[in-house]
Amino acid sequence: HTKLLQLLTTKPE
Amino acid sequence: AHHSAMSPEEFISRIMEAEPPEIYLMEDMKKPFTEASMMMSLTNLADKELVLMISWAKKIPGFVELSLADQIHLLKCCWLEILMLGLMWRSVDHPGKLIFSPDFKLNREEGQCVEGIMEIFDMLLAATSRFRELKLQREEYVCLKAMILLNSNLCTSSPQTAEELESRNKLLRLLDSVIDALVWAISKLGLSTQQQTLRLGHLTMLLSHIRHVSNKGMDHLSSMKRKNVVLVYDLLLEMLDAST
Questions:
Q1: pLDDT digits (tens, 9 = 90+) for B151-189
Q2: Do B235 and A5 touch (CB under 8 A)?
């Protein structure tokens, strides 16, 4: 998992 | 509401709300800079800003409805242009200075300590002066930033599958919304119809300069990395590797 992908797929709080 | 059902006014207020917070470098600056220390400060700041840029993009109405592949591709294509436009906006009222963050401001001459960066600083300052002459408004600025993101790979990829085609069509409709929003923002300035058209042209033409400076900056950063002047890591490394 790349960091970009991780940031894009985490739901906003 | 879906962005296609939003008024330009609503769309702009949504992208104004998406604006990332002010970011501080929070480092003890030892002046005078060395080539390594200045590059380290610049890359540290860029890495922090990139994390905020991803959250910003996700708040642009319609962006997360694009395919994940498109979202990734768009961000990888335009990240340095977005950083540079933000820098220009922060610097617009400070002629001759580049306001990287409230605690990291540089004069043109300070670029002398990093090989090859003064040329880039000069291009950044020149584009900033153009925005100053045009008296760029905040509403216009947020539209231009969204335009950079959504326009960044329109001419470098062509959709093959049905899914790609669907995402491409969504992207085009989203660009329509951003252009409508920019036209609306310009229409609020009390200009004649002809002056409005000219302003739209001048503002969008500046985007090609930003693309040019970004390409120069990308070459510069990858050469600094190659020569081990600066250690590029984390999200910045991922984005840089994607573009070179």
A1: 998 887 788 899 999 999 999 999 999 999 999 999 999
A2: no
